Amino acid sequence: MIVCSLKSAVFAASMAVATPAALAFQGQHREMDWATTLNMTAWQQTQLERIESQYHGVNRETRAELYQQMRDLLTAEQRQRADQLLQQRYQAVAEQRVQHLSDRLALSPQQIERLRNAQLASVSWPPTLAQRSEQRRLLEQQLAELLSDEQRAQWQQLQQRQAQRFEQLRSVQ
């Protein structure tokens, strides 16, 4: 049985360069039981495990190939259901991102609503790397327009701390 968890989805969706599609299927980022949810056959499950092991630890560009091979295993109905579930999850991640920013930056109800509307409007599934890059750019633009000077300073501090954590993680690997 293949069990999926997106425990780091908020972080992955807002900061990672990899497509959320690849992250949604990839080992440590799983949350859904794809085999049961999509009613996968034993053969499909075996093939999915083979594909995952083949792509374990690959670079971000290659993950798009991983995602495509995984999708190719599914029937049309399974693909439609998987896309629907992933779209819902992606929307939930966008909502969590807004809540996270609200908590960290003490956003006003008006700021929350404007950011939520902008984030949910930009949700499309599955996004390409270029679309994810554009979504990050739009988030930065939205925050620049919405935040007060004090909030903007807090946002920059959060980004700096995040960049430092990334560097620490890279140096460990």
From TrEMBL:
Residues 1-24 form the signal peptide. Keywords: Coiled coil, Signal. Residues 129-156 form a coiled coil. This is Zinc resistance-associated protein.
